[in-house]
Amino acid sequence: MLYPPKCPVCDEILSGGVKDFLDDEKIKGVNAWICDRCRDNLSIIKSPICLKCGQSIDDKRVQYCADCARYEHSFDEGRALWNFSLDARRILLKFKYASRRDYGYFISKELYNHYAHWIKSKSIDCIIPIPISKKRYRQRGYNQAQLIARPLGKMLGIPVRSDLLLRKKNTIRQKELSRVQRKNNLKNAFFISQDVVNLRGVLLIDDIFTTGSTLDAAAEILKCGGVHSVYTLCAGAGKNT
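^ thats the sequence. predicted structure below, dont judge the formating
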């Protein structure tokens, strides 16, 4: 009553009862955390997509986007939910910088509804959210990738391991850097806290995919530690630069 659920796009109070938003029996149905009008306006990534990173491509005759055709990624295969349009940008920026932690469950449910079958086909042993530095965690108060990963793992019945991959340095914000600078910025940024050699498949979760530099750095160290396959899943995907 005091803080009713609001649509993450238009910020209007949603009409469903509290049970509609919390009832896990309905996880396979329509996502109650967004109004119908705004759901229709969100730009969902649809086929044809790049077979490597999962972003939209314009030409049905090619298998990879221009970026993946030019640069090699460390992860095996990725998917993303939304094109980084105005509405998706509004959701993800408020989620990341305006303390709208409640958007985490909404995003998780959307990812489940669109990619549960794909995830289940990959023999995933655990889900790992991309970690943030201790300094950034203190400033923000939460890790947005973790808020997506936890409910998604519960819906899928796959354990979420936030303790395996950790960040050991506070890097410059990636959005301010070029591709080469992003790669250099992430050198030695992550470390593995435990033995991962027995993990066959891992799903990395992040909020936004641009060049994939962060996911590449995380996937590389996981594979060096013995993980066989690393897949990625992001809420939004912007144009690679």
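The chain has a mean pLDDT of 87.
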